What we know:
With 404 residues, the chain is an alpha/beta fold. It has helices spanning 63-76, 108-116, 125-138, 158-161, 167-172, 182-195, 249-256, 262-271, 274-279, 284-292, 296-320, 330-335, 337-344, 356-360, 385-399; strands spanning 5-11, 15-22, 27-35, 42-48, 54-58, 86-93, 104-105, 144-148, 204-210, 214-220, 223-227, 325-329, 367-368, 377-380. An eight-stranded mixed β-sheet has the order 5-4-3-2-1-6-8-7, with helices on both faces. A six-stranded mixed β-sheet has the order 11-10-9-12-14-13, sandwiched between helices. Strand 2 and strand 3 (27-35) form a beta hairpin.
Amino acid sequence: MSPTRVLVLNSGSSSVKYQLLDMRDGDRLAVGLVERIGEETSRLKHTPEGGESREWSGAVADHESALKAVAAELAKDGLGLDSPELAAIGHRVVHGGRRFTEPTVIDDAVLAEIERLIPVAPLHNPANLTGIRTARDLRPDLPQVAVFDTAFHTTMPESAARYAIDVETADAHRIRRYGFHGTSHAYVSRETARLLGRAPEDVNVIVLHLGNGASASAVRGGRCVDTSMGLTPLEGLVMGTRSGDLDPAVIFHLMRVGGMSADEIDTLLNKRSGLIGLCGDNDMREIRRRVDAGDERARLAFDIYIHRLKKYIGAYYAVLGRVDAVVFTAGVGENAAAVREAAVAGLEGLGLAVDGELNAGRGDGARLVSPPDARVAVAVVPTDEEMEIATQTYALVKESGNPA
């Protein structure tokens, strides 16, 4: 029997998240996380299917040591990296630029191109590369596949992807809208079509991926035609610690009048803005608790967050022309009923509304929270980026005639 397991790796600057999936039935055979890599207090948590979680703490010097620790934990459950049932390793790569429009089997040329893109993804691509190189060293015989956050958004027309700046300057420095969270937007838009009982190519969807990072996309017939994040993940919606959209002249003002350096402004906009900059909290649960207690700073932060959401819903409604569903996903989108209610409140003229009882209810799967007779469905669809990466990886190795 051909191998059917895919190990999904998401390598961050100081962490490695992983899942081992069996693509015959979608079972998660193991999930885990190594965090604080490079510190004395590194921590690994591993949970095998149907078993109890195992945790340990100690020094994990680097990503190679982290992946060896992951391999050891998997081996304890008979799921080691040397298993003949392992078909491939799928890697999340944040930035694929314009070249990588689909999942790609990794070779030296692909690695070189991912490295060339580091200037437009300095926080993410280096960590992704470290994970890939370590995995290739551990299993050089196994197909390794890169699945890019930006790939789903490469179908945007030039009218959406181009910024209105000098073309030669933009091209010389690869400045354009790339978009991020693409694996989530791809998975959720497809699952929304399934929820509606229709084919993805027949459905227009506005996807709102709302976590600590947040992004919106307009998806027409299964293809992204616009998205809120741009050259970097800073643009667009108000996020946990990122500002989202603002007048670019704010940066010049802070340099000239505030005496701030480029690095200080980068830190301000990426780590000290958004909800945490507005009210000191970036956890929507705590913000809602404060709102209910009458906290005015929390109320203003929530109102600004919702105002930006409404603007993007309206803008993408105009871009699509016809909308079949607005779908909420990720941590806030899936769990914050108050956010969903407020985001569509007053948009009844566009056919949008939520049913109070359905919206307040909780569930693990995809569900509608709009009234049965609503012109536009409002849905909650849990995202599953690991499953999307595994699905794309497995399909590619099967198609290319590799071990799967």
